[in-house]
Write a structure and sequence with these properties.
Layout lengths: L6 E4 L3 H12 L6 E4 L15 H4 L14 H4 L2 E4 L4 E5 L4 E4 L4 E3 L2 E4 L3 E3 L12 E2 L4 H13 L2 E5 L3 H12 L3 E6 L6 H18 L3 E4 L3 E7 L2 E7 L4 E3 L2 E4 L3 E3 L2 H5 L8 E3 L10 E3 L4 E5 L4 E4 L3 H15 L11 E6 L2 E7 L8 E7 L4 E8 L2 E8 L5 H10 L5 H5 L12
The structure holds flavin-adenine dinucleotide (FAD).
Flavin-adenine dinucleotide binds next to helix 1, helix 8 and strand 22.
Length: 411
C-alpha cells in the first residue's frame, strides 16, 4: 500500500466516498486510500428503508459512484478491509490481517452501528435491524414471507420500515417507550402527527410500551412480551432503537472521544493529522456554539468536503445547518435546523396539520431554531435563512401562509 504521502480514509460509506472525491476535485495528486470493512463499494443508506426496500429502485441506484470511478480517479478502494488500530504519532494504521500502513493524513468516516436491544431473546433468528444493504434485502424477503411483524422503536428507521411493511401488506405493531413517536427529536405536538399518520395506515401503535423479552421457540422468534404481561405474536421483530458511533478506533488511539470523535470546526480531531466526518464525528458548530453529532445524509455528504479541504491545508470550517428528510406513505418532509429536546418554548404551525400539508417552526423566544416542511416543497432555503439569521420573527406572519417566508428575513 501507499507510503507516508498517502491520505487515508477509514470507512467507505457516503462520507468516505465524498472525501475521496473532494481530494481529487481539489487537485490533490498524492495517493488516496479508502478502506472499508463492507463488501460493497460506497452506497447511500436512505433508499434502504424507502425505495430500495419498497422495490421501486434498484441496487445500482444506491451507489455513490459508478464501479470504475475509483480506478479512474486513482482512489485505491480496499473493500472487506477492517482497520483495527491507529498509531497517531507513528502515522500508521493496522489492518485486521496484521499489516501496517503509513499515512500522512487520516480521515475517520467510520459511521455508526445499530444499538442492540438489551433484553433476553434479542439474539433469536428473525430479530432484524437495518443499516446495511444486506439488512434491507433480508427485510424485503421477510415482508414477502411474513404476515405480521413487530417494530421496536418509533424513530425514523422504525417508522420508515413500518411504512414499507404496510405497503407490502404486512400487519405491523410498533412498540415505543415514549408517549409519541419521534418524541426526542420533534417533541410531543409533532410526534402526535406521525402517530396519526401510522394509525391511519392500519398500524397498531403502542406507545409507553416496556419490553420484557423477545420470545421464541427452536431459536426462532415468535413474539414480544411486554412488562405488563401483554404478548404480541410476530413472524419477525425489527429493532430500530438508535445507533452508536463507531469511535472505538479513535478512543483506543487516545483521541478525544465523547458521543463520537470530537473535532473542531475544521473537523480536525485532538491529533493535528487526523480528521473525522459524518455520523461518527461530534463537531464543534460555529453557529450553534457547541459540539453536535448529526446522523443524517446531508451531513455525511457535505461535512467530508470540508474535512478534505482542511486536510489539504485550506482555511475552512463546517457551518452547515443540520438537514434531513423522510418519506412515509404519502408524507414527504424536510427538517432544517437544530433543537435540543427542551430548548424550545413552542411550535408555530403554518398550513394544515390535518391535511398533513404544513410547516412547523420550533421557537425559543421569538427566534426560529428549526423548521420542518411537510408535503410543501421549496421551503428549505427560506427556512435555513430564517434559522441561520438568528433574527426575531413576528409569530403571526410566520403562521400566515399568505406571507412569503423569505420576506421574514431582514437584510
Ligand atoms: C436505513 C437508513 C435510512 C436512512 N434514511 C435517511 C434519511 O431518509 N434521511 C437522512 O438524512 N438520513 C438518513 N439515514 C442516515 C444516513 O444514511 C447516514 O447519516 C449516513 O449513512 C452516514 O454516512 P457515514 O459515511 O458517516 O457512515 P456510514 O454510512 O455508517 O459508513 C461508515 C462505513 O465505515 C465502515 N467502518 C466502520 N468501522 C470501520 C473500520 N474499523 N474499518 C473499516 N471500515 C469501517 C462501516 O462498516 C461503514 O461501511 C439513513 C440511515 C439508514 C441506515
Amino acid at each position: 500500500m501507499a507510503g507516508n504521502t498517502a491520505f487515508m480514509i477509514v470507512g467507505a460509506g457516503l462520507a468516505g466516498a465524498k472525501a475521496a472525491e473532494t481530494l481529487r476535485a481539489e487537485g490533490f495528486d498524492g495517493p488516496v486510500v479508502l478502506l472499508g470493512d463492507e463488501r460493497e463499494r460506497p452506497y447511500e443508506r436512505p433508499p434502504l428503508s424507502k425505495s430500495y426496500l419498497l422495490g421501486t429502485s434498484g441496487k445500482e441506484q444506491t451507489f455513490v459512484h459508478p464501479p470504475d470511478w475509483y480506478a479512474r480517479h486513482g482512489v485505491d478502494l480496499r473493500l472487506g478491509t477492517a482497520v483495527t488500530g491507529i498509531d497517531p504519532d507513528g502515522h500508521h494504521l493496522t489492518l485486521a490481517d496484521g499489516s501496517r500502513h503509513d499515512y500522512a493524513k487520516l480521515l475517520l468516516t467510520t459511521g455508526a452501528t445499530p444499538r442492540p436491544l438489551p433484553v433476553p431473546g434479542a439474539d433469536l433468528d428473525g430479530v432484524l435491524c437495518l443499516r446495511r444493504l444486506e439488512d434491507s434485502d433480508r427485510l424485503k424477503e421477510t415482508f414477502r414471507a411474513a404476515s405480521r411483524v413487530v417494530v421496536i422503536g418509533a424513530g425514523w428507521i422504525g417508522l420508515e420500515t413500518t411504512a414499507a411493511a404496510r405497503a407490502a401488506g404486512v400487519e405491523v405493531t410498533v412498540l415505543e417507550s415514549a408517549q409519541v413517536p419521534l418524541q426526542r427529536v420533534l417533541g410531543r405536538e409533532v410526534g402526535r402527527i406521525f402517530a396519526e399518520l401510522h394509525t391511519d395506515h392500519g398500524v397498531d401503535l403502542r406507545c409507553g410500551a416496556q419490553i420484557a423479552r423477545i420470545t421464541g421457540g427452536d431459536g426462532r422468534v415468535d413474539g414480544v412480551l411486554l412488562a405488563d404481561g401483554t404478548r404480541i405474536e410476530a413472524d419477525a421483530v425489527i429493532v430500530g432503537v438508535g445507533v452508536t458511533p463507531n469511535s472505538g478506533l479513535a478512543a483506543a488511539a487516545g483521541l478525544d472521544v465523547g458521543n463520537g470523535v470530537r473535532v473542531d470546526a475544521r473537523l480536525c480531531t485532538s491529533h493535528p493529522d487526523i480528521y473525522a466526518a459524518g455520523d461518527v464525528a461530534s463537531a464543534f458548530h460555529p453557529l450553534l456554539g457547541k459540539h453536535i453529532r448529526v446522523e443524517h445524509w446531508a451531513n455525511a455528504r457535505n461535512q467530508p468536503k470540508t474535512a478534505a479541504r482542511a486536510m489539504l491545508g485550506q482555511d475552512v470550517v463546517y457551518d452547515g445547518l443540520p438537514y434531513f428528510f423522510t418519506d412515509q406513505y404519502d408524507l414527504g418532509m424536510e427538517y432544517t435546523g437544530y433543537v435540543d429536546p427542551d430548548a424550545y418554548d413552542r411550535i408555530v404551525f403554518r398550513g394544515s396539520t390535518e391535511d398533513r400539508e404544513f410547516i412547523a417552526f420550533w421557537l425559543a423566544g421569538r427566534r426560529v431554531l428549526a423548521g420542518m416542511n411537510v408535503n410543501i416543497w421549496d421551503a428549505t432555503v427560506p427556512i435555513r435563512a430564517l434559522v441561520a439569521s438568528g433574527q426575531t420573527v413576528d409569530e403571526r406572519a410566520l403562521a400566515d401562509p399568505e406571507v412569503p417566508l423569505d420576506s421574514l428575513v431582514r437584510e
